[in-house]
Write a structure and sequence with these properties.
7 helices; globular; alpha/beta; 6 strands
Length: about 200
């Protein structure tokens, strides 16, 4: 299996993990970036207020997403881009929680993606004072990008994992993780609805 994956990054409108307002994606095949994408998202109802602190970070305002697709409408676009890939994110716990919570807020089924975290990998591969995305990306050779632009952050994340695979001489992501003492994670599958209980009294 070659070094194939999709890097992902979300920005949120407020402190709610369900408030996804943009996503960035970068597809990697055999250790090379072959496609990128990104778009604005109208956050789910009840999670759609934009906090000033968030807007100061990523620059996205409520009016910017007014005509964007909502989470349910764009989830299929995200799934089409990712396919069966492993997801890679910097501080992946945050991004996977955004996926799960946004799906919960809209009643959508969250795909049970496998995923790996470049923060965790970077702590095992590099000796740095800071493991923030710009610092790690710079060591991986990707510099001067627009941090907190979701598409740029996903691209930076992809470069980090590609560099980590090269430095560890790993043939795939499982080998990267094994070489640094980590395991692949996975979003839990959505629980199946319980089978209806039979009313035996009505059967006699």
């Amino acid at each position: 299996m070659p070094v194939d994956f999709t890097a992902i990054d979300f920005e949120t409108a407020n402190s709610s993990s369900a408030s996804a307002c943009s996503v960035g994606l970068a597809r990697v095949r055999d250790g090379r970036i072959v496609a990128t994408g990104g778009w604005l998202i109208r956050p789910p109802a009840g999670h759609d207020r934009f906090f000033d602190v968030n807007t100061r970070i990523h620059g996205i305002r409520e009016e910017d997403v007014a005509d964007a697709k909502g989470w349910s409408d764009q989830l299929s676009d995200l799934a089409a881009f990712v396919g069966d890939d492993i997801l890679v994110a910097h501080n992946a716990g945050f991004d996977m929680t955004v996926l799960r919570r946004a799906c919960e807020a809209t009643g959508d089924v969250c795909p049970p993606y496998r995923y790996a975290c470049t923060v965790q990998v970077a702590r095992r591969v590099y000796q740095l004072d800071s493991y923030r995305l710009p610092s790690v990306a710079a060591v991986a050779g990707f510099m001067d990008f627009a941090h907190h632009d979701a598409a740029a952050d996903a691209l930076a994340c992809a470069h980090i994992m590609i560099d980590a695979a090269e430095r560890t001489a790993s043939r795939d992501l499982y080998a990267v993780l094994k070489s640094v003492g980590l395991r692949m994670s996975q979003i839990p599958a959505a629980p199946q609805p319980a089978a209806p209980m039979l009313d035996f009294a009505a059967l006699v």
